[in-house]
């Protein structure tokens, strides 16, 4: 969005499954998609609320807390 918020995307679960099948162990995603993505186990998710938070995480200034998938 224009105010910097990171909006949820459709199809997050199939994307996460595909990323895991291709070896991804850590995934940054919109925080609005976290609940759905948590269905995939053995992946650490970094839910981002906005572009500033994402930039801070990627630069190392302030890391987003990782959350492990539950299933």
How far the N terminus sits from the C terminus, by CA atoms, comes to 31 Å
Q: How many β-strands, per DSSP? A: 3
| Poorly predicted segments | none
The total count of helices amounts to 3
Percent of residues in helical segments? 25-40%
Spatial order of the strands forming the largest sheet: 1-2-3
pLDDT averaged residue by residue: 95
Topology:
Layout lengths: L11 H10 L4 E5 L3 H4 L6 E5 L2 H9 L7 E2 L3
Parallel strand pairs: 1-2
Antiparallel strand pairs: 2-3
Spell out the key features of this protein.
single chain, 71 residues, alpha+beta, three-stranded mixed β-sheet, 32% helix, globular
3D architecture notes:
The protein is α+β, with helices and mostly antiparallel strands. It is about 30% helix and about 15% strand. Strands 1-2-3 form a 3-stranded mixed β-sheet. Helix 2 links the parallel strand 1 and strand 2. The longest helix is centred in the N-terminal third of the chain and has 10 residues. It is globular and about 30 Å long.
Short structural summary:
With 71 residues, the chain is an alpha+beta fold. It has three helices and three strands, in the order αβαβαβ.
